[in-house]
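Quick one: structure for this chain?
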Amino acid sequence: DDNVEGDDDMQLALEMMETAWSVLDKHVQDVKDENKIPSPWVLDQIPRFLLGIGDVLTDLQRLADAADVYSRALEHRESAVKSISKDELTLDHLKKRRQIVEANVLVAEALLACPDREDVVTSETGDVLVRAGERVEYARGYYNKARDELQEAVFLMGRIAASGQDLGTEKEDVCFISTLLMGVGTTLAEYDEQKQAEAESNAAHPNKRQKT
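Got it. Here's what it folds into:
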């Protein structure tokens, strides 16, 4: 069966990426234990692998696990920006700002894709990431952070362009992540409209609400 073979291939890819990530993570910890600074290349690869793992988990419909992994990647993305001055007008700075937006969007998308009225629970450890009643609001929090970070990225992009530098592909990349962010906003707006319609229906038919 093609679907079974496809899932087997995805599971194999997942295991390979998890192994690669664990090797890099251990290397970073070993270097830090020696009071040395890990190379920027290695530090950049860790969130890349985490995002790849999250993408495979999403394809396997392990959405809670994907949200968990994406949130861990977000922590690395945020850490990378902390070491950069806000006045640094470089494409690398812009890229790292954009990657924070991306990670926030991915967490929000994964949370919104989780089953409604169910706790968001990881499959391997059984950890409850988010209670069912808080899932959408958690997603909204990541959406709001992504929106704020996008504003920072766009402002930085304008300053870099004004300095005469070529933006390369970053302008297109920022536009693309803006489109993804709009998609999350649309999903949240539809959810709000649905909840409002339910509230109005319950208010109009109070007896029906009591029976349910």
